[in-house]
Amino acid sequence: YGIKNLNYMSYNHQHHYFFLIGPPLLIPVYFHIQIMHTMFSRKDWVDLVWFMTYYMRYFLCFVPFYGFFGSVVLSSFVRFLESHWFVWVTQMNHIPMDIDHDKHQDWVTMQLKTTCNIEQSIFNDWFSGHLNFQIEHHLFPTMPRHNYWLAAPAVRALCEKHGIPYEVKTLWRGMVDVVSSLKKSGDLWLDAYLHK
């Protein structure tokens, strides 16, 4: 099976091509198709009308300035940037963490072992929309994001008191970990399907 599919999609090189293929297809393609499917399957006609009026309003605003083709290019480019931002912000806090199987731990410990924070700075807070405090986001999902930094010292103190690791990475380390994780999983795929 693996040898047959190697020519189709070489997963062991996914760390090279993922960011050219994955993010651009995530929000502009997959999310829009999924949203449309959900609205039709649930017969949520009010949401469908609001969804359609967004595009009507968008084109009414931008076609006079950029033309139809220019407006489509602008929308696609903005969605392309949004997709890359979304993938980086969400993945660097989750992907490389130890989440292989349930270790029968309490909920708080499990949240802390399956996510990490990206160190706080003005840029990181802005770039991630305060989701650089992913630990606090997992522990307090309904808390407004701009308050996570206030909860972080209390969570860190609780972790120190109970000997639970509280992992904080640099932005660069988080990005490198995503690429490393893609390479590692690609190498596992190659080993599983070609060599065994």
Explain what you see.
With 196 residues, this protein is mainly alpha-helical. It has two domains: 13-85, no CATH class; 107-194, no CATH class. The protein is built from eight helices and two strands, in the order H-H-H-H-E-H-H-H-E-H. The protein has helices at residues 2-6, 14-41, 45-91, 107-113, 122-128, 134-139, 148-162, 171-194; strands at 117-118, 168-169. A two-stranded parallel sheet has the order 1-2. Helix 2 (14-41) runs antiparallel to helix 3 and helix 2 (14-41) packs across helix 8. The longest helix is centred in the middle third of the chain and has 47 residues, at 45-91. The relative contact order is 0.13.
- Write down how many β-strands occur, each being a DSSP E stretch of 2 or more residues: 2
Backbone shape: globular
> Which whole number gives the mean pLDDT?
86
Helix content percent band = over 70%
User: Oligomer, anyone?
Assistant: single chain
Estimate what percentage of residues fall within beta strands. Answer: under 5%
Q: What's the helix count?
A: 8
Major β-sheet strand ordering = 1-2
Structural class: mainly alpha
Which regions have little confidence, pLDDT < 50, spanning 5+ residues?
none
Q: How many domains comprise the coordinates?
A: 2
Distance between the termini: 11 Å
Q: How do the SSEs run, as a string of H and E?
A: HHHHEHHHEH
Computed CA radius of gyration, to the nearest angstrom: 21 Å
Largest sheet: 2 strands, parallel
Write the topology of this structure.
Blueprint: H1 2-6, H2 14-41, H3 45-91, H4 107-113, E1 117-118, H5 122-128, H6 134-139, H7 148-162, E2 168-169, H8 171-194
Parallel strand pairs: 1-2
Helix pairs in contact: 2-3, 2-8
